[in-house]
Design a protein that fits this description.
Layout: E1 28-31, H1 33-37, H2 46-57, E2 61-65, H3 74-77, E3 85-88, E4 93-96, E5 102-106, H4 111-124, E6 129-134, E7 137-140, H5 158-161, E8 173-179, H6 185-196, E9 200-204, E10 210-215, H7 220-230, E11 238-242, H8 248-253, E12 256-259, H9 265-270, E13 273-274, H10 282-292
Parallel strand pairs: 1-2, 1-11, 2-3, 11-12, 12-13
Antiparallel strand pairs: 3-4, 4-5, 6-7, 6-8, 8-10, 9-10
Length: 294
Amino acid sequence: MREDGSVTSATDPQQARPAPAGTTTPRLIATDLDGTLLHDDKSVSDRTVAALAAAERAGIEVFFVTGRPARWMDVVSDHVHGHGLAICANGAAVVDLHAGGRLIQVRPLAREDALAVVLALRAAAPGTSFAVELSTGIHYEPEYPPFHLDPGATVAVAEKLLHETTPGSGAPVIKLLAHHAELSPDDFLTLARATADERASVTRSSPTALLEISGYGVSKASTLAQCCAERGISPAEVVAFGDMPNDVEMLSWAGTSYAMGNAHPAVVAAASGRTVANNDDGVAVVIERILAGL
């Protein structure tokens, strides 16, 4: 999940760098959405729509792999073909976009682990506020900033939100969100990862100090690896795109990967190639190049 806003990169977004030559013909394209496939206004350009459709016609599956929850996938639901699946919530959910976002698989964060992380982060970073993303919707603390909040959400302290009986009648916890008003995003991420230890996986996709906390070992990469294994697709046959720290593991796992021109420096370091920024249709640029070489 990523709020609106640009991301400052230490690299020149106009300098595209190709992936190494001689790579395997791709069978699957895995792309992040916000800051990657989507323009900053959250639209999908006509060029990108055409490139995605052309890839599917060429027999290359396309997976959207995002931090967004299933209920925020309307922006791309008309542009998924074939299988209709998307990986949401940083790998915590696989959803069927052809069936209106129906959950196919959930990899939850255990409530006892979520509560332990809440208590540890409150001690390590006073002033942290939390939201709890359940399979049924989001709920948040009174101090949590108003980012994409749902009108039907319950407002209460995280300890109450994580109680088995309220809210959601024991619905799986998809992820925990933690916000800090004063720490820098990367400093908060480093602190939270050390604090969470092996109880949860922590990442971020926002330009602000907003962290996304999933079950331990849950990531875009691990769920994408499962989906590919089910299809007999190897990492060498995957091309991945991303722009923020929650994409690093996926870009490292894929045989060929591209950091967007607007990407975080850690993403640039993890990727095997570089394309232009999301507003310049960097994903489409690469897909067109791949298809021209088939």
